[in-house]
Write a structure and sequence with these properties.
12 strands; ten-stranded mixed sheet; Glucose Oxidase, domain 1; alpha/beta
Length: about 160
């Protein structure tokens, strides 16, 4: 992947939206780019598991909003599902676990932090909705770029 978020911000200052610097990398891929699929979760990851297991994620990144609840919605099992179905990565406005293992799986994973426990109560999430967090609003189909410097979004594919 030949992009750097800093260079994209310099080249397209009026076309990118920059997420607040709240997110850390917990995946094996340290740089990701792709078109986003949005998912609002109530805390339980049942809808995320279904999406990752049943959808070809080639060139896609799932952006997940759990309102920063302090429970983990992504761990090594979700990362394995993502890898098996070619997802480029996940950005979680919330927490993850099993990070010793997730860092060994070749999928990008950016989240607020870690939490060892998960939510047990099953509940359905909402796919393909606009999400607002970290100072931005992201919409289904936006393009996301993430690397060591941060995470940015644009409405169209950016060229270097």
């Amino acid at each position: 992947m030949k992009f750097y978020t800093a260079d994209l911000c310099d080249k397209y200052p009026n076309e990118v939206r920059v997420l607040e610097p709240l997110f850390k990398s917990y995946g094996g891929a340290k740089k990701i780019m792709g078109q986003i699929v949005t998912l609002k979760l109530p805390g339980n990851n049942k809808s995320l598991a279904e999406l990752l297991k049943t959808t070809n994620g080639e060139g896609k990144i799932v952006v997940i909003d759990v309102d920063a609840q302090y429970t983990a919605v992504v761990g090594d099992n979700m990362m394995k599902f993502a890898l098996e179905n070619n997802w480029a990565g996940m950005v979680v406005n919330g927490y993850v676990r099993d990070t010793k293992n997730t860092k060994e799986i070749g999928v990008g994973l950016f989240a607020l932090g870690t939490c060892p426990c998960k939510t047990i109560e099953p509940d359905e999430g909402e796919l393909h909705v606009s999400l607002s967090f970290a100072g931005i609003t992201c919409k289904e189909g936006d393009y996301l770029y993430a690397d060591r410097d941060g995470i940015i979004l644009s409405e169209s594919l950016l060229e270097m």
